[in-house]
Write a structure and sequence with these properties.
The chain is mainly alpha-helical and 472 residues long. It contains 16 helices and two strands. The longest helix has 55 residues.
């Protein structure tokens, strides 16, 4: 049965629709996007383990660090073994992370939760995140931004599904738990069954992606697609660059800085969203924004994050990648300045500014695989993407540190006002300015880094014809 995971068994038969690939990728990304919903049961974990905020927060930190490391070091393996085997490995690690974490909760061994959800789950996150990328780009050479946006928006939207689902499951397993009460905590047994349910459920959903993903046959191309027309666009190459050579180019490191700066700015707001909107509209010790309204704001930001991944990434197919990052970074500088200076004047204005900022944050994630394809070709784009995601891991540390460092210097939580956020927000303007300049410095990759002609072209097996509508 495991032989069905081999790369040679994933080649699409004639007539296979390429529109089945985004749902397969989406099934994986929706599941691993649960990582953004860990705050739902954070208070219950605090009570169960009698641990500090930092001790519980380490679980998520380990998962994000492992995401970057596994994507970086596992990228070449993913390219060599194909999307089906990679998605299966991701599902196994992701599900086992929940199950080992459940054992840790049941035995009150926090270190087991670190090993489970943090270490094992983080590996599943990294492998799962990059596994469909190069496949989507090969199926959609005419619209790579749309294809990767369709899949990666699932990671941003995973929390929209996981958050209410987790609350309902906890209330089902513990009738005394009230999901509408911010102070209510679920029992340890409810947390155990939540982790078991999510682990098994996510594994089954991810199997849909495993058995439906395919790679195109050699020579396949969409009907009416002319590679020469795409290659005529600025920064788009018809050559291929290996992952090892990509690390030797200036363009890779400029793009690393671009992603780092875009994520640092966005994740700072995302991590602080709920208290931030309350503090911006605080008069003395009383905020006009309730805890429930702040929670709704967090959900709205997730929607902006998810929508931006699809809308902006799809738009980049028409505008080009460099211009869309000019919008993300340059527009972000303007929006952060407005948020710091006039965001406190009206709740609707604050929500709009923060929402568009988060849409740029999500769009940056979804557009970067297409940017990599333009610069380095399709040969090892998944492996290159994995290495680039180390910028995400670094930004996941830098963004919250910048915001929280400034806020700690301004006063105690619950007493801050909008002026306390100004130093941090203006700092983010500077961070985005660095990314803006780095994006302008990205140039086509010099020919000395190109692979020999024909490298990376798939070998068509005997008896497998090109898909209907293709040309040679």
């Amino acid at each position: 049965m495991l032989s069905a995971l081999d790369h040679k068994h994933t080649i699409a038969p004639p007539g296979y629709s390429r529109w089945l690939i985004p749902p397969a990728a989406l099934s994986v990304h929706l599941c691993i996007g649960q990582a953004y919903a860990t705050s739902v049961y954070k208070n219950s974990l605090l009570a169960h383990f009698s641990a500090s905020q930092t001790a519980i927060g380490v679980i998520f930190s380990i998962a994000i660090v492992m995401l970057g490391l596994s994507a970086a070091f596992g990228g070449t393996w993913v390219e060599n073994n194909g999307p089906r085997k990679a998605m299966f490995v991701s599902a196994c690690f992701w599900a086992s992370g929940f199950l080992v974490g459940a054992v840790g909760i049941a035995t009150k061994q926090l270190w087991l939760v670190y090993v489970g959800y943090g270490f094992l789950g983080g590996i599943g996150l990294g492998i799962g995140y990059i596994s469909p990328v190069s496949t989507l780009i090969k199926w959609f050479p005419d619209r790579p931004g749309l294809a990767t946006g369709l899949a990666i928006m699932g990671f941003g939207g995973g929390a929209l599904v996981a958050s209410p689902l987790s609350r309902q499951l906890l209330s089902f397993y513990d009738p005394a738990y009230n999901p509408a009460d911010a102070k209510s905590v679920a029992s340890g047994s409810a947390l155990v069954w939540l982790f078991v349910t999510l682990g098994i459920g996510y594994f089954l959903i991810m199997m849909f992606g495993v058995f439906n993903v395919r790679v195109p046959a050699a020579g396949w191309r969409p009907a009416g697609f002319e590679p020469a027309a795409v290659a005529a666009k600025p920064l788009v190459t018809t050559a291929n660059v290996s992952a090892s050579n990509a690390l030797r180019t200036r363009s890779f490191w400029m793009l690393w800085i671009v992603l780092f700066c875009n994520v640092t700015a966005g994740i700072g707001i995302l991590e602080q969203a709920s208290p931030m909107i309350q503090d911006f509209f605080r008069d003395g010790r009383v905020s006009s924004v309730t805890v429930a309204a702040a929670g709704g704001f967090v959900g709205l930001l997730s929607l902006f994050n998810m929508t931006g991944r699809f809308v902006w990434s799809s738009t980049s197919d028409f505008t080009g990648r460099k211009p869309i990052y000019v919008l993300y970074l340059g527009g972000g500088m303007v929006l952060y300045t407005l948020l710091a200076s006039v965001g406190h004047l009206a709740t609707a204005l604050f929500v709009l500014l923060a929402g568009v900022i988060l849409s740029f944050y999500g769009g940056g994630f979804a557009t970067v695989p297409a940017y990599l394809r333009d610069l380095f070709g399709t040969y090892q784009v998944g492996a290159i993407h994995g290495r680039l995601l180390t910028a995400w891991s670094a930004a996941g540390v830098a963004g919250p540190l910048i915001i929280n460092g400034f806020l700690d210097a301004q006063g105690k939580p619950g007493t801050l006002t909008w002026t306390a956020y100004q130093p941090a927000l203006y700092t983010m303007v500077g961070v985005l300015a660095v990314g803006f300049v780095a994006n302008l410095l990205i140039r086509p990759v010099p020919e000395r880094f190109h692979e020999p002609a024909g490298t990376g072209e798939p070998v068509e097996p005997v008896g497998v014809a090109a898909e209907e509508g293709s040309t040679r």
